[in-house]
What does this fold into?
Amino acid sequence: MKSKYTVYANWKMNPASLKDAKSLFSETIKNVKGISKTSLVICPPFIYLPNLSSKSKSISLGSQDVFYEKEGPYTGEISVKQLKDLSVQSIIIGHSERRALGEKGGEISLKIQAILSSNLKAVLCVGEPSRDENGEYLKTLEKQIKDSLENVQGRKVANLTVAYEPVWAIGGDKRPLDKEGTREIYIFIKKVLSDIFGAVKASKINIIYGGSVNSKNVLDFIKETGMTGVLVGSSSLDSKEFGELIKKVEKGF
Ligand code: PGA
It folds into this structure.
């Protein structure tokens, strides 16, 4: 059997109450019951993490950010250890919505180092704000990847995933990248990762796609593109639609 695909549900700052978070979680679990080939990582806001858990081996918890220091006087921040204590296994870092709030490569790199050294999974988000005919956007992307991974040691990169999320495709109702474009960008990102870590280590790093993924288009991003998963925002807030999406991935093998 082929290796598993991973689907990340990024709830962002939703829903508005614990009651709604619990019901979205249980409905989602119900609608994806029986999955065996897909790994599902649900990434709710921090505050809901202690209240959500699943017995299924295929479903785990993720978070949408973390701070890089171990402990101490960092008001408002949350450490890797604290997340680990709540059974979080994967952490999204450098999402474009966080970068828009001022997060930079140096900080992102420190966060990734903290995650990998604690043996959790880091999902590094990268993506250009817009495209141009001359391919300048590829330079932007390359710089983003290199800055975000500066000083990250190759030893634990098997726990690193790069999520390619072009900013112009994020929002749930945008026109996403097509299949051919997904394949091309996969090859480009692999090449950049090989430049950084060498081909052998780069081959261990998963690359996934995010940006207006839904149940209708999901297979375009993972079938024959090299990508091993998707990061889903809007569609993950509708448990019925999300259940359909997961079913497509399961059948798509
Ligand atoms: P979207 O969001 O699926 O709503 O486009 C994806 C993301 O921002 O991770």
Q: What stands out?
A: The longest helix spans residues 179-197.
